[in-house]
Amino acid sequence: MSHTVDAAAPALSAAPAFDLAALRDDFPILSREVHGKPLVYLDNAATSQTPRQVIEVFNDYYSRYNANIHRGLHTLADEATGAFEGTRETVRAFLNAEDLRQIIFTRGTTEAINLVANSWGRANLGPDDEVLVSLLEHHSNIVPWQLLSREIGFTLKVIPVDTDGALDMAAYRGLLNERTKLVAVNHVSNALGTINPVTEMATLAHQAGAKILVDGAQATPHQMVDVQAIDADFYAFSGHKVYGPTGVGALYGKRELLEAMPPWQGGGEMISTVSFTEGTTFAAIPHKFEAGTPAIAEVIALRRALEWVQDVGIAAISDWEHQLLTYATQRVREIDGLRILGTAPHKAGVLSFVVEGAHSQDIGLLIDQLGVAIRTGHHCAQPLLHHFGVDATCRASFAAYNTLEEVDTFVAALKRVIDMVR
Ligand SMILES: Cc1ncc(COP(=O)(O)O)c(C=O)c1O
Questions:
Q1: In the chain, what is the straight-line distance between the N-terminal and C-terminal CA atoms, in Å?
Q2: Residues with a CB atom less than 6 Å from ligand 1
């Protein structure tokens, strides 16, 4: 689902389609104080908070069935394996993938992209080829391609953005040609919140004979994702941005691509047979790409996080975050000298801004003293920020549990801090 942000700000009485007070009760951390002030957590694009239902999974796992998976015949190993593989089905359904085997567990989006670069990239890219990334990318969807391009010699090209921070689709069309082998693009920009037209981009990439990898780190928490409708060749996301634990994420890939790809990391679990004389043969997908003991508890807890999202309803979350974003956008516009970066018509719940005469770093530190957690810095998107002529921005980003009152607290704190530093 995508939204436009030019709608009128919701009245303070606006409410989500879910019981917000009850939902907040799921998050123990939201009742803590920071520097003697109630925490207002607006750094959700960096990591979202974790509901108690997910935290309880860890307790349950380590108290009752902590065991290594797949290889054990005993009851605990069986229970752990069942729970672990259960998450694979939940992720499959969450992304609407065709087949369980298309879901590979990784440490997160970064590792998923590195897997594609090192496996698919090494096997399929040559010195005359081109890979397109966008200017909106997180460093995790730039640097793996730069590293590989240094070795292989393919050309990395950049899809530009317009002044609102929307991708320049005419330029994208112009960049695609018969040498383009891959388009690597995020679904939603972490730095600006821009929602990219990935379905249209996939169609165009495929017409040019290229594959498309979609970085869904910022999309999965905020909107329904259907990898088949997008026709993504690869889709990656991180658990910790979608109310789940750190250290776990997933890569979706089209079956024929994954089956043809060579393994990346070698070790236990990813083999069929190992021999010094006959050579080694590899397991079928997805295990071919899951070497070593994975983050078992985290994978199991990810299932609970995705179920939690489904229970609340991703459409309701998306609508509520949009109301928060619209309200916050209107409120910060009251502040003299504040410039919003990222005013694309389709945006998710990210509000990035700079303030004339006030360094972003100072704002971040001082507003924390008032209990408000926002992010300041380059958001791992240095090329994009440099394009906008800045080194750092302040970024407030929203999740299901945020309230309009928290937006008011944030704006009041921001005004106070700006008065202090100017
Ligand atoms: C758009 C985007 N891509 C990739 C990443 C990297 O995710 P992780 O650090 O969980 O691997 C992030 C994290 O901020 C992100 O926002």
A1: 40
A2: 108-110, 138, 140, 186, 190, 215, 217-218, 238
Rg value, the chain, Cα: 22
**Pocket-testing residue among 106, 107, 109, ligand 1, by greatest number of atoms within 8 A of Cβ:** 109
What are 354's strand-pairing partners? 339
Told to judge if 380 belongs to the known catalytic residues of this protein, a careful annotator would answer: yes
Residue 27 to residue 36: CA distance in whole angstroms = 19
Q: 299-320 burial, b for 16+ CB within 10 Å, e for fewer?
A: bbbbbbbbebbeebbbeebbbb
What sign results for the dihedral spanned by CA atoms 21, 347, 342, 45? positive
DSSP string, 318-375: HHHHHHHHHHHHHHHTTSTTEEEE---SBB-SEEEEEETTB-HHHHHHHHHHTTEE-E
In ligand 1, the atom with minimum distance to the C-alpha of 240 is 10
Catalytic residue among 214, 302, 374, 380: 380
CA of 297 to the centre of ligand 1 (A): 21
How crowded is the C-beta side of 249, counted as CA atoms within 13 Å? 28
- Tens digit of each residue's pLDDT (9 = 90 or more) over 321-349: 999 999 999 999 999 999 999 999 999 99
Q: Are 342 and 164 in contact, with CB atoms under 8 Å apart? A: yes
- Chain centroid to CA 159: 20
Distance from residue 111's CA to the centre of ligand 1 (Å)? 10
pTM of the model: 0.97
From atom 15 of ligand 1, which residue's Cα is the shortest distance away? Answer: 217
- Residue ranges of domains in the chain, CATH in brackets: 20-50+313-421 (3.90.1150.10), 55-310 (3.40.640.10)
Share of the chain above pLDDT 90, in %: 95
Provide φ and ψ at 33, rounded to 5°.
-110, 155
CB 341 within 8 A of CB 390: yes
Ligand 1 center from residue 248 Cα (angstroms): 12
Q: Indicate whether 233 pLDDT > 80.
A: yes
